[in-house]
Amino acid sequence: MTEQDKRFLTTDFGIPAPDNTNSLTVGYPGPTLLEDFHLVEKLAHFNRERIPERIVHAKGAGAHGYFEVTHDVSQYTKAAFLNTVGKQTPAFVRFSTVGGEKGSADSARDPRGFAIKFYTEEGNYDLVGNNTPVFFLRDAIKFPDFIHTQKRNPQTNAKDPDAFWDFISLTPEALHQVTILFSSRGTPKTYRHMDGFGSHTFKWINAEGKAVWVKYHFKTEAGIENWTDAEATHMAGANPDFATLDLFEHIENGKEAAWTCSVQIMPVEEAAKYRFDPFDVTKVWLHSDYPLIPIGRLVLNRNPENYFAEVEQAAFAPTNIVPGIGFSPDKMLQGRIFAYPDAHRYRVGTNYAHLPINRPQVEINNYRRDGAMRFDGNGGATPNYQPNSFDGPNAAPEFYRGDHQDAFSGNAERLAYELKDDDFAQPGALYRLMSEEEKTHLVNNLVGHMRNVKSKEIVERQLKHFFRADPEYGQRVAAGLGLEVTA
Ligand code: HEM
């Protein structure tokens, strides 16, 4: 390196810095001069280093990799990134806990986020799922209330078991996810040792315009590994960033993290006849009804260079679907279609789509211009309106021509899901499926948490839900709390 090539410290405008240790003062020790613009710029920029953390899923870790198609699915979807066996699509994945703040412990009892961004040749496809196939709720209108109960008490600023169990006990549809959350799967050891799910029902559309309903499953090739409750509590103090560092170091050591991807496919005409509403995200489709069909492999093999640029500014939205993929009338999914881009505009800024981590690997062509921090060419001299006579980009209906159309009709009403079965059958079946050891962990984890609830009324209401799922389930939790329960 020559003397000229040596890099020197500058301001944000490239002006060489005279000193990075001593501020400019009048005499010794002297007051500091406002004209020390090096100091002012440094302090002012520092004050603005934080952007709002995600309102949920604030603590997370991410990695780059690819998705490879292993089985022909062209009979079900025309999505270009899935159209050839062996095709690889670049991907970025962010894993997260849900309720804690950006500095909270990785080992917390919580679902884990499993958000995938596929940089396809038809634009970005985001599959923003969890490590659980179901969710606590089935209507987006309940989500902010639910999350308030997972966060901090408005007066004490501490976690509030009464609020948590009050809401849960008044929300019977949560029982399935609660049973998973308090099983050992509520404390996965690392992000590599857990499965991922799209959770919602989505639509796939093939080249003939025919549609099917679809659910995604990602099975970890590393095998499931969980902490016990005691281990998770210990890790929260001993190494709160354990899962974050595990992912980073695994990849840094030249190894891959991988999941096989399968789907369940339901013919559209079977939805109305199914044993429960197939769009209700508190339920799983039975594998005996709709077996797993393998489709591909997700591989993570490259760490981010910079956490803020790539992980913190990453913006995933269930809103982003590509031709060949559609939404379903799942009311949670419908609410999420609004919520995520809205969160991104607030959290990252109007032009967040242009940041390198969010930018698609295809051209962005439209008439949206300006806005805070527009840092590309902003469309240059090309027209910013349509219709125009200057060869601006036109809509591309050919990507959607002949697609299946959903037929909806009815009055505008606020209707609950029609429950063909109840909210207790699947959690009860899950409980009975568990080994004796798993049942004991589940019961002990629940007892350990519910013991902190002050209101007896809340506890008794929740115990009835466990009992309705399976009398033994309810009785064991009640016994652990020194109580009795009946239907
Ligand atoms: C993050 C809203 C349900 C998975 C978020 C964020 C919001 C949000 C606002 C923060 C986004 C950001 O700042 O970048 C909602 C609403 C829901 C809902 C309103 C219900 C109507 C779900 C469900 C799942 C899920 C059912 C999974 C099946 C995630 C994940 C993230 C996230 C994985 C983190 C994404 C990332 O890593 O950046 N959610 N959510 N959410 N949500 Fe949801």
Structure description:
The active site is at residues 57, 130. Its cofactor is heme. Belongs to the catalase family. The chain is of the alpha+beta class. Among the domains are: 1-49, Irregular (Cytochrome C Oxidase, Chain J); 60-140 and 184-354, Catalase core domain (Catalase HpII,  Chain A, domain 1, Beta Barrel), CATH 2.40.180. It has twelve helices and ten strands. The protein has helices spanning 37-47, 143-150, 161-169, 175-181, 229-238, 242-252, 307-312, 331-347, 425-433, 436-450, 456-469, 471-480; strands spanning 60-69, 88-96, 113-120, 123-130, 196-197, 202-205, 211-220, 257-267, 293-302, 325-326. Strands 1, 2, 3, 4, 5, 6, 7, 8, 9 and 10 form a ten-stranded antiparallel sheet that branches. The longest helix has 17 residues, at 331-347. It is globular, with a radius of gyration of 26 Å. The model has no long low-confidence stretch (mean pLDDT 97). Protoporphyrin IX containing FE binds at residues 54-57, 60, 94, 96, 113, 115, 128-130, 135, 140, 143, 199, 314-316, 332, 335-336, 339-340, 343-344, 347.
Write down the CATH topology of the domain at 60-140 and 184-354.
Answer: Catalase HpII,  Chain A, domain 1
CATH architecture of the domain at 60-140 and 184-354: Beta Barrel
How are helices and strands ordered from N to C?
HEEEEHHHEEEHHEEHEHHHHH
Report strand %: 15-25%
* Helix-strand makeup class: alpha+beta
Mean pLDDT: 97
**Low-pLDDT windows of residues:** none
Total strand count, please? 10
Rg (C-alpha, Å): 26 Å
Largest sheet features: 10 strands, antiparallel
- Measure the end-to-end span: 79 Å
Bound ligands, each once: protoporphyrin IX containing FE
Enzyme class: oxidoreductase
Keywords: Heme, Hydrogen peroxide, Iron, Metal-binding, Oxidoreductase, Peroxidase
Catalytic activity: 2 H2O2 = O2 + 2 H2O
Protein name: Catalase
